[in-house]
Design a protein that fits this description.
single chain, nine-stranded antiparallel beta sheet, mainly beta, Jelly Rolls
Length: 149
């Protein structure tokens, strides 16, 4: 993951915005908003903003290595059963594609960056589309407004 760490450091120092015109916005379970801030080749940066008292169960992204970078709010990440409370802007956790992880927010919610390297020839979309959980689901459920077309 050394090349991903180098990309993370470069992106955090330069904060280049290169969002795709389409397919950059996601809303999962009507509780977690996401936006792609940067995408080039296999590298991507997504900003996620989970609402307060939100929990994401243990899962993996089989084709994505990432660093989760804390920005603000109350956030606890869980990697393979160990909790990591985040409280300092820029705190980051490396998450290999084989590592089960999840998290929970406090009452006010949180915001974090997911700085990613997509592998195995898979082009970046959203990490919620490259998902595997212990219940056998292979995709995170997106919220869809029943009245929208």
């Amino acid at each position: 993951m050394e090349d991903l760490e180098n990309f993370k450091d470069w992106w955090l120092n330069n904060r280049v915005i290169n969002s795709p015109k389409h397919g950059s916005l996601t809303l999962y379970h009507n509780r977690i908003s996401g936006v792609v801030l940067y995408r080039q080749n296999e590298y991507q940066v997504e900003l996620f903003i989970p609402q307060g008292n939100c929990e994401v169960k243990q899962h993996i992204h089989p084709d994505v290595d990432s660093f989760e970078v804390y920005l603000c709010g109350e956030m606890v990440f869980n990697l393979d059963g160990t909790d990591y409370a985040q409280s300092t802007i820029g705190d980051s956790l490396p998450i290999p594609s084989t590592c089960y992880h999840g998290g929970a927010t406090g009452e006010e919610g949180a915001a974090f960056l997911s700085i990613q390297k997509w592998k195995n020839g898979i082009l970046p979309t959203s990490v919620g589309e490259n998902w595997g959980d212990k219940d056998g689901k292979d995709k995170w459920e997106k919220y869809k407004d029943e009245d929208s077309s």
